[in-house]
Each structure stands twice: as structure tokens, then as C-alpha cells.
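Box S2. Input/output pair 1.
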Amino acid sequence: MVKTWSTPPAPEKKRLIPCALCGGLSFRPSLSCEGFAYVRCAACGLVQINPQPLEDEIKRRYGQDYLAYELTNEAAFLNLQTLALADAGFGGIETALFAKNKKPRLLDIGCATGSLLAFLRERGWETTGVEISAAQAEYCRQKRALDVRGLPLKENAFAEGSFDVVLASHLIEHLNSPSDFVREVRRILAAEGRFFVTTPNIAGMQARIFKARWRSAIFDHLYLFSAATLTRLLRENGFTVEKTATWGGLAAGTAPAPLKRLCDRAAKRFGFGDVMIQRAKRLP
């Protein structure tokens, strides 16, 4: 099982924190990985790395140059993102917003090289990005003439109700405080705005089969959400979840192609895919 991109472990300052979802202080061992481990909250079931690196340590991780990696995989990542958004009903939201005779406003947090922002700008969206990897943010601005900010979300101090749609793909699992993040997303969304969040699915078939060898059980992922824990996080911070979709039954190379295709179709239909996307609507 080949794991996805991960920062090599290095000495970092850590502290034990309450569960980011329910505030619980009781944890049980969950996944013992090479050089680090996950625990599961005994109260709500959220899987997390705890003790957790301090926020400044996390920021330093993403000061590295990820540009070459993202450019190498850009086409594949864009394809996956557009397919995921389609599964979550993005097209219907897009049609409804454009029907209001305005140019809808969209924010992509963790926009990497800006390929999705550029794609959506061509479709008529007014686009803004957030990307704390300096090299990638500069690439977005210089090569694609995109409005991309290089600070973490809250530090940009966007005005309330600035965006009709906010996207966050493979980001929330990297954050020290996902609750604070979701509350800030709600603040900057317009009334009944939509939040599309994509993250690995700890309740999926691959996670259950491979356990600590699961490709998303990596050093960079502070949290591993299930549909249930992600839904709770969103609901408790001002959203209602309208749609959940998953995909990815078996990883490439782990089964014969016909079996993989069958499992991939079943994972999407029955919700046990390796990755999930949720569409959430901002509540008043």
C-alpha cells in the first residue's frame, strides 16, 4: 500500500489537547503508524493525532516547496476535484447562482497551483484563493493571474458574507482546530452559501482493510474523519449537510482490474469509498 504525500517526521513541540469535536479528554489507541500514532476519542469517536504538534510547528511544515509535486499531479488532481464536485451537486448550485443574474463569488482554500480556480474562472465565477505554500501562491499569481492570498484563512480577514461558495479539498484534516476553521468559513459565506469539503474517509473500506498501512494515515493528517464525525463538526458550527458522496473502492494495484472496477462502483453507490465530499449549507 503506497501512502500519499507526507512530510517526514521531525522533532516538534506537542501538547495534549481536548478532542476537537466534543472536548473529551479520554482517548483509546487507534492506529499505530511508523513514527507516530492515532487515538480515538472515547466519547465521539473522532480519530486524531494527540498529543498534537503546536500550530506554529504545523505552519512550518507547509513552508516547504510543494510546487513541483503539485504541478506533476495537477491534471489528475483537477480531474478528481471536478468529479467530486459533480458528485456533490455543484452543478445545481452553480446553475442556481448564475440564474440570479450575478457573478457568483467563490473561495478555494488550499488552492495549490490554482488549476481549479482557473477552470472555474473560465466558467464565469469571481474567484479567490488561499494558499500558505509561498511558492504555489506566487505561481497562481504570476502564471495564472489569480487572486490568491498567502495567509491562513482567518488572517486574511475577509468581510462577512464575502462568498457564495467555499471549497476546501484535502485540507481540513491538516488543521489544528477544524472547529475554528468551519466557524470562519460560515462567517465569510453569504446567507445560504455552500461549503464543499473533501477529506479521506476513515470509515471507508480501504481504511478498514489496511488500518495503519492505509494511504491516508500519514504524519500530515492530524484528523481522520468519518461521514458521521464530519457531519457533526459541520452541524455544530452552523451548517446543515445536504449531500455526502464517497469514491474509491480499492487502490490501484491491490486487486485485478475487473474487481477494482466493481468495488469502485459499489463504494460510490453504498458510501464506503476511500475519500468523501460533503456539501453543507450555511444556516442563519
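Box S3. Input/output pair 2.
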Amino acid sequence: MVSVAATLSLVSMLGMAAAQEYPSRNVTIIVPYPAGGPTDETARMIAQSLSSQLKQSFIVGDVGGGGAIIGSEKVSRAAPDGYTLLVHNLQIAANVSLYQKSSI
């Protein structure tokens, strides 16, 4: 009985700790490829689903070029607040060995 009360108490405190619901403003999803490709299409399906579930706009922005580094670096320089997301594919793993200098 004590453990049930402790668990309920913990759950109620976690609810109070969430001072601000996420997302409270638009979220940008960066795709580091040109529009119309499979990664862009996947990001748009994810954005549509998240928008309907969370009742907030998820905006897809295609930032192609530089072997996907330009868009990826844009996300890496964004504030770490969860409002700029990256949808990528396996190329990000290859870029580490292909390019000498990158901030990602």
C-alpha cells in the first residue's frame, strides 16, 4: 500500500514538473536534401502525423547541398531546445569519413 501511494505521489509530481508543454510553438524539421526525394517525403509524413497528434505546426525545410552537410550544420548550430529537428539517412555516417572538416 505504501509503494502504491509513493508511486502515485511521484507521478503527480512529474506532472507538475512539466511547466511548459512541448511544443508551445512551431517546430522546424530540416531535411538536408532537395525537395521531392524519399527523405523529404518521409519528413513530411512525420511532420503531418506530429502536427495532428500534438496540435502544433511542424514545418519541413529542405536545405540541400554540400553532401548534406549544409543542412546538418544548420541543425547543429540551432538552439538545443527541441524546436529544430533533423531527418537524415545513412549518409551522415559516411560523411564523417568522406569530409575532413565538418561541425556535425
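Caption for Box S3: The domain at 23-98 is CATH 3.40.190.150 (D-Maltodextrin-Binding Protein; domain 2). The radius of gyration is 19 Å.
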